[in-house]
Amino acid sequence: MDKFSDYPTSLTAPARDAAAVTPDDATDLPVLPRAIYIGQTGDVSARLAGGQSVVFENVQGGSLLPARAVGINATGTTATGIVALW
Predict the structure, then answer these.
(1) Burial of 72 (0-12, 13-18, 19+ CB in 10 A)
(2) If you write DSSP's letter for every residue of 50-82 in order, what string do you get?
(3) Where are the domains of the chain?
């Protein structure tokens, strides 16, 4: 039973869906996520919804990046086990 099914989904609410991310320098993610989960420690090169590109250095495995990334670049990304949450 989901007691919260009638509540609206907001950026501060827990994610309802997720998908594994394959880093790619040109292809955008199919859905704009609210956060990115990092499975294994490394750098994450992201293209953000605001148009900026940034490298998050040494992101620890098991952590969440509260970033709305339109894409994760293969070039510059060494972290693995990346999952988009929305």
Answers:
(1) buried
(2) TS-EEEEEEEPTTEEE---EEEE-STT---BS-
(3) 23-85
Which residue, among 76, 86, 85, 80, has the nearest Cα to 38 in the 3D structure?
Answer: 80
35 by DSSP, 3-state: which?
A: strand
Rounded CA separation 4/75 (Å): 40
Write down the pLDDT at residue 5. 77
- Measured between its terminal Cα atoms, the distance across the chain in Å is 21
Q: Which of 51, 65, 64, 60 is nearest to 78 (CA)?
A: 60
> Strand, helix or coil at 9?
coil
- Give the tens place of pLDDT for each residue, 9-46: 777 788 889 999 999 999 999 999 999 999 999 999 99
